[in-house]
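Design a sequence for this backbone.
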């Protein structure tokens, strides 16, 4: 009778150098081994699709945007004036519009999202949590065009009445985007707060701290890396939003004069112009897509770096 493998405990590394999964599979029948291997290959292929898709999208966008370097020039591309019909392709005003809209949305949305997460995780009763949590989840599932309608019909007239203008501009976009990023920030912050062991809270209570002192002196600092992750991903959501922003900013490609004056953003300008653009104009739009891609990749990289710091 054949002797079993030298490794008897599949949860520990053995002297033969096999990894844990391979050793587990070595202890089952051939049919089960082949089935497990097949599933591993299937799931690996699924994961590989995501990687290949990202590479293909980036390569396609870069190829379409390449003439920016030779036909437009980097200096002009990052200039202030966007007037394609006159041969000006500067995106600085559009980038400024994206920055203003995103920062304002974060100022309004981050406290709202974190406050909601703290309430649902640390304070709310099960009954209240059962009502509020589905409402927050539903916010994430509402199509962005609906947010655009809400901003244009409800928020814009309110801003117009307060400011005296038409209501199109960064201020209206702030309110719309702040609501849109709340589900992202809330959900990820709740995950970060729930990852904190209950023993830390109990230790704080045992030392005489109140519930509120435990929340802001113990729980929130312990979950700070996860909360920053949530904010960064919410920022990515705000930068990439197109339809809702397109409907409320006024679409004027100029440096923002005030929070109530019409502006335009990178995403909204691409959506507006792509349907009829050609030649250098089309190339400039793809180059704007590369800029957005690089910003998104930088945010994801920053989140990964923070996650590694948090695990240490």
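Sequence:
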């Amino acid at each position: 009778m054949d002797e079993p493998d030298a490794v008897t405990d599949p949860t520990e590394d053995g002297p033969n150098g096999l990894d844990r999964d391979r050793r587990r599979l070595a202890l089952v029948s051939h049919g089960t081994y082949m089935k497990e291997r097949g599933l591993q290959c299937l799931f690996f292929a699924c994961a590989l699709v995501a990687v290949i898709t990202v590479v293909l999208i980036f390569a396609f966008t870069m190829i379409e945007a390449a003439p920016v370097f030779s036909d437009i020039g980097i200096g002009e591309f990052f200039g202030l004036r966007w007037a394609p019909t006159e041969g000006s392709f500067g995106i600085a005003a559009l980038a400024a519009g994206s920055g203003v809209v995103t920062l304002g949305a974060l100022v309004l949305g981050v406290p709202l999202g974190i406050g909601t997460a703290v309430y649902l995780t640390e304070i709310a009763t099960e009954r209240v949590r059962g009502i509020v949590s589905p409402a927050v989840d539903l916010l994430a599932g509402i199509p962005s065009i609906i947010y655009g309608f809400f901003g244009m019909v409800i928020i814009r007239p309110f801003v117009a009445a307060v400011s005296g203008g038409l209501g199109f501009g960064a201020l209206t976009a702030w309110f719309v985007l702040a609501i849109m990023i709340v589900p992202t920030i809330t959900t990820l912050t709740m995950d970060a707060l729930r990852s904190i062991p209950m023993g830390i809270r109990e230790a704080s209570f045992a030392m005489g701290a109140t519930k509120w002192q435990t929340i802001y002196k113990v729980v929130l600092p312990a979950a700070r890396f996860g909360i920053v992750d949530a904010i960064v991903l919410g920022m990515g959501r705000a930068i990439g939003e197109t339809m809702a922003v397109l409907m409320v900013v006024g679409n004027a490609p100029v440096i923002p004069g005030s929070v109530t004056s019409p502006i335009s953003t990178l995403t909204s300008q691409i959506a507006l112009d792509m349907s009829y653009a050609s030649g250098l104009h089309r190339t400039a739009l793809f180059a704007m897509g590369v800029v957005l891609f690089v910003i998104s990749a930088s945010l994801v990289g920053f989140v990964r770096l923070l996650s590694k710091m948090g695990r240490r």
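The radius of gyration is 25 Å.
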